[in-house]
Amino acid sequence: QVQLVESGGGLVQPGGSLRLSCAASGTIFSDNAMNYWYRQAPGKQREWVATISNRPSTIYADSAKGRFTISIDNAKNMVYLQMNSLKPEDTAVYYCSTLRAWGATQYWGQGTQVTVSS
Q1: From CA 67, how far away is CA 86, in angstroms rounded?
Q2: pLDDT score of 27
Q3: Do 39 and 68 contact (CB within 8 A), yes or no?
Q4: How much of the chain, in percent, has pLDDT values that exceed 90?
Q5: What pLDDT does residue 54 have?
Q6: Helices (H), ranges, 3-116
Q7: 49: nearest Cα among 94, 102, 4, 112
Q8: Is the Cβ–Cβ distance between 81 and 61 less than 8 Å?
Q9: Which of 54, 50, 55 is nearest to 67 (CA)?
Q10: In this predicted model, what pLDDT tens digit does every residue of 26-54 receive, in sequence order?
Q11: Torsional class of 44: left (φ above 0), alpha (ψ -120 to 50), beta (otherwise)
Q12: CB atoms < 10 A from the CB of 12, how many?
């Protein structure tokens, strides 16, 4: 059974930084085709933030480019999202997700709240 658990969210001032972590059981991130971070702000649809593949290669949403970095720690089987220069519009619940292979089940964590406010 695959379980993903996010952590690292919290309250941060504009311009600050946070590092989100995603721990997995029942799957290995570096073996999976794609690993993602998404976010969902209040009253809005869930949106994709960043992807890291098993090559590995990374892709970012325009809103994240230059500020966020997605990475995998193979030894710890963790996926991270380093977020710098945070803005109030980054406030959302952030979700980790993993896809073992194209056409397979995409697994999700329960989310971690990030609030950017002064």
Answers
A1: 8
A2: 92
A3: no
A4: 89
A5: 87
A6: none
A7: 94
A8: no
A9: 50
A10: 999 999 899 999 999 999 999 999 999 98
A11: beta
A12: 18
